[in-house]
Amino acid sequence: MLQVCLNGARNRAEYSRLPVTADELAAAAREAVAAGAEDIHLHPKDHDGQDTLEATAVAAAVSAVKLAVPGVPVGVTTGAWTMADPQARAAQVRAWTVLPDHASVNWHEDGATDVAAALLERGIGIEAGIYSGTPAAQRFLNWPGSRRVLRVLAETTETTPQEALHSAAGLLDELASAATPILLHGEDAAAWPVLQLAASRCLDTRIGLEDVLHLPDGAPAPGNAALVRAARAIIQHTQQRTCNES
Fold first, then answer.
1. Measured CA angle at 214 (ends 81, 22), to 5 deg
2. Could you tell me the domains of the chain?
3. How far is residue 242's CA from residue 162's CA, in Å, rounded to a whole number?
């Protein structure tokens, strides 16, 4: 499965065409799905362009994207940078009026289990975010609800390709006992090498402006759809030589 991460915690200063409003997210999602994305991850934004879990913003973003790409799963962030207090974040989840199909919870953040519990109460799938270089993997595996998540998001935080690939292999070893699908991805200069590693291991992966602003050849990406097309080409080429033979 190839997920597109449409915007992330970035802002327009980093990328002038970053999709921020509900309409922009809907348009970006439509183009990305047409290019081959099968799942969507987005960060709802407030009027200042900052990430938020406020119910009105979540409803606007999720509703617009679902209307644009009916039948495609749509997920949002619950990152601690949206609000430091995990109990307040859990309360925001319980106040959502339009529900995403899934939401990511970063297991290195304080109160991850509180936010996860709120999502489970609402019937929202959990993407368990496991960052390399943190104790997140063991925290997650020790959580009694670890088998109830939709998938694990294994994220290498190292941005040097060689270090990221080494870290990704170690992270996958740590998560070997996880009983759910794993989506492996990297960021910035390591995004493309880690995506290829994921493809070679027949794992789910993701690409989008949240993770990288450049195409594999180093050219600036004109948008999410171009990133998805490049990722789809890499995945198909890699998996023809690996997954189809196994």
1. 50
2. 2-245 (3.20.20.70)
3. 21
Residue 117 near residue 155 (C-beta atoms within 8 A) = no
Tokens of 104: 């990511």
| Residues belonging to the chain | 246
Strand partners, 152: 128, 182
Tokens of 139: 């925290």
Cα-flanking dihedrals φ and ψ of residue 192, to 5°? -75, -45
Token pair of 43 as six digits: 């960060």
SS3 letters across 209-246: CCCCCECCCCCECCCHHHHHHHHHHHHHHHHHHCHHHC
**Residue 243: which pLDDT band, with cuts at 50, 70 and 90?**
low
* Contact residues for 185 (Cβ-Cβ < 8 A; gap 6+): 5, 153, 154, 155, 156, 191, 194, 195, 198, 205, 206, 207, 211
Instruction: Enumerate the β-bridge partners of residue 196.
Output: none
- CA dihedral angle for residue 1, residue 65, residue 24, residue 55, rounded to 10 degrees: -120
Angle (CA) 47 87 97, round 5°: 50
Token pair listed for 80: 């601690």
CA 236-156-129 angle, to 5 degrees, is 95
**CA-wise closest residue to 7 among 34, 28, 36:** 28
Nearest in space to 65 (alpha carbons), one of 110, 106, 19? 19
* Confidence label for 239 from pLDDT (cuts 50, 70 and 90): confident
pLDDT over 70, % of the chain: 98
Who has greater pLDDT, 178 or 70?
Answer: 70
